[in-house]
Design goal:
Flagellum-specific muramidase which hydrolyzes the peptidoglycan layer to assemble the rod structure in the periplasmic space. In the C-terminal section; belongs to the glycosyl hydrolase 73 family. One of its GO terms (biological process) is bacterial-type flagellum assembly. The protein is mainly α. It is built from eleven helices and four strands; from the N terminus they run H-H-H-H-H-E-E-H-H-E-E-H-H-H-H. A hairpin with a 2-residue loop joins strand 3 and strand 4. Helix 2 runs antiparallel to helix 4, helix 6 crosses helix 11 and helix 7 crosses helix 10.
């Protein structure tokens, strides 16, 4: 079956990772699919603007309904782009093909149209302020998500794959959790001299921890009320060590037995919250959004 005939699915992150590899090899079919993904992202921005401009009130308006509405919009834009959409994908594909040096694609062109430069698929993203679940004092460093997410995923992906294999869960779940905990790597605990701790999962240094320690301000929720505290966090020599320690904790603690082997983002996120991984009452919702969100999908494509 041709891959283009398969109905697109926003949760099929493995397909997007495969597409990333194919695009690097200048596969024409992969270029077509990458163009469709960009059009889907554009349509998603249009729908989001429409939703934001629509008054929200009534008994069915809540954080949860808005989350599922966002998932519906993401899936809808995938289907629209796959069926032709606005025609934007075809234009992008043509420019990508020009960039790949295909002689046939270089011939002809639209009349009276000047030579076009290849269109970059990396759109400038707005600066977001991400609160990594109380792992800072709330004054979080602004993060440019588009570039920062791509760089972050490139650095941690091999370690996430290795840790995920031992836990029986998809690796992008771990990447999403690390992104949430650290604001895509920008807000991990640091030593006073600025050295990184490589602590991607907010793991604290309890009595049993014998390794290096770094102190950092954090927000903890007590009875649902945020409180500023200074806590001792574990420090590592590399991201590889951080993922290995996280995997060991998940594998050895009975608290996380229900999390191991999770294949759905919702089950993974809510399993962590029920096990008491974090005190933030919105932890699972925030993690679900990253797992199913466009930022992570685009970062996995590259």
């Amino acid at each position: 079956m041709n891959s283009s005939s398969v109905e697109p699915n926003i949760f099929d992150v493995g397909r997007l990772a495969s597409l990333k590899r194919q695009v690097k090899g200048n596969d024409p079919q992969a270029l077509k699919e990458a163009a469709r993904q960009f059009e889907a992202l554009f349509l998603q921005m249009v729908l989001k603007s429409m939703r934001d401009a629509t008054p929200k009130e009534g008994m069915f308006d809540s954080e949860q309904t808005r989350m599922y509405e966002s998932l519906l919009d993401q899936q809808l834009t995938q289907v629209m782009a796959g069926k032709g959409g606005t025609g934007l994908a075809a234009m992008i594909e043509k420019q990508l093909t020009r960039a790949s040096g295909d002689p046939e694609a270089m011939e002809g062109g639209l009349p009276l149209t000047p030579e076009l430069r290849p269109l970059s698929l990396e759109k400038p993203a707005p600066t977001l302020r991400i609160d990594p679940l109380g792992r800072s004092d709330g004054a979080v460093t602004p993060v440019t998500v588009a570039g920062g997410a791509n760089q972050f995923v490139d650095k941690v992906w091999p370690h996430a794959q290795e840790a995920a294999r031992s836990l029986g869960i998809p690796p992008h779940f771990l990447v999403a959790q690390a992104a949430l905990e650290t604001g895509w790597g920008k807000s991990e605990p640091r030593f006073p001299d600025g050295r990184p701790s490589y602590n991607l999962f907010g793991l604290k240094a309890g009595r049993s921890w014998t390794g290096p320690v770094v102190e950092s301000a954090t927000i903890e929720y007590v009875d649902g009320v945020p409180q500023r505290q200074v806590e001792r966090f574990r420090a590592y020599a590399s991201y590889g060590e951080a993922f290995a320690d996280y995997a060991q904790l998940m594998a050895s603690s009975p608290r996380y037995a229900a999390v191991r082997g999770s294949q759905e983002g919702t089950a993974f996120a809510h399993g962590l919250q029920r096990a008491g991984y974090a005190t933030d009452p919105m932890y699972a919702v925030k993690l679900e959004r990253i797992i199913s969100g466009a930022t992570l999908r685009q970062a996995l494509i590259g």
